[in-house]
Design goal:
Layout lengths: L13 H17 L8 H14 L3 H4 L14 H14 L1 H20 L2 H13 L4 E4 L15 E5 L2 E12 L6 E7 L9 E7 L5 E6 L8 E12 L3 E2 L5 H37 L1 E2 L2 E2 L4 H29 L5 H26 L9 H10 L8 H16 L1
Parallel strand pairs: 1-4
Antiparallel strand pairs: 2-3, 3-7, 4-5, 5-8, 6-7, 9-10
Helix pairs in contact: 1-4, 2-5, 4-5, 4-7, 5-6, 5-7, 7-8, 7-9, 7-10, 8-9, 9-10, 9-11
The structure holds flavin-adenine dinucleotide.
Flavin-adenine dinucleotide (FAD) binds next to strand 1, strand 3 and helix 11.
Length: 387
C-alpha cells in the first residue's frame, strides 16, 4: 500500500485529496493487475470500466471546477493517471487516451462536436485517438505531409499517420493535416474522423515492448465535412500544442505512478529477502539505493504537481510541464531499474511486476516530446526570460 501523505501538500484542494483516495480504493477492488493476451479486448473493457466508475468525466473536463479558466482540472488528471499507473499501465493508458484523444474537442470544439463526442467518451461508449505523428514527422511535427484539400463543404484527407495509440480500436480519431492556409505550422488544421469513414484504413498494427493498441493509419481521398474541423482552418498546430500542454504534465504523473509502484515492490523485497543472515534492506548499499529512489520520486512529484497547480491557476506552464516530464520520466526509469536490481534474477522474469514496469516506462521518455525536446523547451524558455 502506497504512502498517500503527499496529498497533504498545498498544491491540492480537498476535492483532489478525496478523489485520489477514492480512486485508489476503487482501483484496488476493480482493476486487474495482470491482463490477458488480447490487448484490444482488455483496453475496451478498461475503457468501459473507467466510464462506469465515472473517472473518465475528468478526462474530458465535464466536471468543471473553474470553467472560466480551464475546462480540464490538471491536478485531477495527474492524480488519476498517477494512481492508475500505480495499479496498471494499461488502465492508465485507457484513461489517458480518452483524454488526449478528445482533448482538442474539450478545449476548442464547437458545442455540436462536444455534444456528439464528449458524453460518449466520458461514459466509455466511444474510444478516442490523437493522430499527429507521421513516419517523417515525429519530433519535427511541423514537417507533416498528410494533407487536407478543401472541396466545397468537405476536407479531403490524403497521407499517413503512425504510432497512433488506440489505432484499430478507436471510434474516432482527431487527425492533424496540412490544409495550406500558410507555410509551416500555420497551415495545419484538425479534423475529427470517425472509424469506418470511406478512404480511412488501418494500414498496420504495431507491436511494442509494453503492448497496447497502436497503429499506422492511411487516408486515401478520405472526405470529412468541415463541420468536423476543430477550430478554424490553419489553427491545427495551436490546437495540438494546447492539447499536449495539458497532457504532457500527465505523462509525468503516469511515470511517477510507475516509479511509486516500483518503490513499493523494492521495499517489500528489501524487507523479506534474506541473505548473509540478514535482510537485504539491512545492508547500507540497499539503503542507499532506496534513499535515492525515494528522493527521485519526491522531486518528480513536486515538479509534477507544481506544473499541474500552476496550470490550474490559468498560468503558462511551458517550462514547468517540460521540467516535470523530463525529470519524472527519466527519474522513473532509474527508480525502476534500481528495483529490478534489488529483485536480482527474479526482477527479469517475464510477468514480474518490476519487469513489466521496466518495459512500461520506456516509451514515456519518447512520446509527447522526447527528453531532448523537453531540454530544448526548457533552455529556450530560460533564455526568453533573460531578455
Ligand atoms: C508507444 C508510443 C505511443 C505513441 N502514441 C502516439 C499517439 O497516440 N499519437 C501520436 O500522434 N503520436 C504518438 N506517438 C509518437 C511519438 O510522439 C513520437 O514517437 C515522438 O514524437 C518521437 O518521434 P519519432 O518516433 O519520429 O522520433 P524522431 O523524431 O526521429 O526522434 C528520435 C530521437 O531523436 C532525438 N531528438 C529529437 N529531437 C531532437 C533534437 N532537436 N536534438 C537532438 N536530439 C533530438 C530524441 O532522442 C528522439 O527520441 C507514440 C509513440 C510511441 C513510442
Amino acid at each position: 500500500m502506497s504512502d498517500l501523505s503527499y496529498l497533504d501538500w498545498p498544491f491540492f484542494e480537498q476535492r483532489h485529496r478525496d478523489l485520489a483516495r477514492e480512486l485508489d480504493a476503487w482501483a484496488t477492488t476493480n482493476i486487474p493487475h495482470k491482463h490477458g493476451p488480447d490487448v484490444d479486448a482488455e483496453c475496451r473493457a478498461l475503457v468501459k470500466l473507467l466510464g462506469a466508475g465515472g473517472w473518465l468525466e475528468h478526462a474530458v473536463g465535464l466536471r468543471q471546477a473553474q470553467p472560466e479558466r480551464s475546462e480540464i482540472d490538471t491536478r485531477a488528471i495527474c492524480l488519476i493517471r498517477e494512481t492508475l499507473a500505480r495499479h496498471s499501465g494499461l488502465a492508465d493508458f485507457a484513461f489517458a487516451m480518452q483524454g488526449l484523444g478528445s482533448g482538442a474537442i474539450s478545449l476548442q470544439g464547437t458545442p455540436q462536436q462536444k455534444e456528439k463526442y464528449l458524453g460518449k467518451v466520458a461514459r466509455g461508449e466511444a474510444i478516442a485517438a490523437f493522430a499527429l505523428s507521421e513516419p517523417e514527422a515525429g519530433s519535427d511535427v511541423a514537417a507533416m505531409q498528410c494533407s487536407a484539400r478543401i472541396e466545397g463543404g468537405d476536407a479531403v484527407l490524403n497521407g499517413e499517420k503512425t504510432w497512433i495509440s488506440n489505432g484499430g480500436i478507436a471510434d474516432f480519431y482527431v487527425v492533424f493535416a496540412r490544409s495550406g492556409e500558410a507555410p509551416g505550422a500555420r497551415g495545419i488544421s484538425a479534423f475529427i474522423v470517425d472509424a469506418g469513414t470511406p478512404g480511412f484504413e488501418i494500414a498496420e498494427r504495431i507491436d511494442v515492448i509494453a503492448p497496447h493498441p497502436l497503429a499506422r493509419l492511411k487516408f486515401s481521398d478520405c472526405r470529412v465535412p468541415l463541420s468536423q474541423r476543430i477550430g478554424e482552418g490553419g489553427e491545427g498546430f495551436k490546437v495540438a500544442m494546447r492539447t499536449l500542454d495539458v497532457f504532457r504534465t500527465s505523462v509525468a504523473a503516469a511515470a511517477l505512478g510507475f516509479a511509486r509502484h516500483a518503490m513499493d515492490e523494492a521495499l517489500e523485497r528489501s524487507t523479506t529477502r534474506r541473505m548473509f543472515n540478514q535482510r537485504l534492506g539491512d545492508f547500507q548499499l540497499t539503503q542507499a539505493k532506496l534513499a535515492q529512489m525515494a528522493t527521485t520520486i519526491d522531486s518528480s512529484a513536486l515538479l509534477v504537481y507544481r506544473a499541474a497547480w500552476q496550470r490550474d491557476q490559468g498560468r503558462t506552464v511551458t517550462k514547468e510541464a517540460a521540467m516535470a516530464k523530463l525529470a519524472a520520466t527519466e527519474g522513473a526509469q532509474q527508480v525502476i531499474d534500481a528495483a529490478v536490481q534489488i529483485f536480482g534474477g527474479a526482477g527479469v522474469v517475464s510477468g514480474n511486476a518490476v519487469e513489466m514496469l521496466y518495459r512500461e516506462i520506456r516509451a514515456l521518455r519518447i512520446y509527447e516530446g522526447a527528453t531532448e525536446v523537453q531540454q530544448l523547451i526548457i533552455g529556450r524558455e530560460l533564455l526568453k526570460e533573460q531578455k
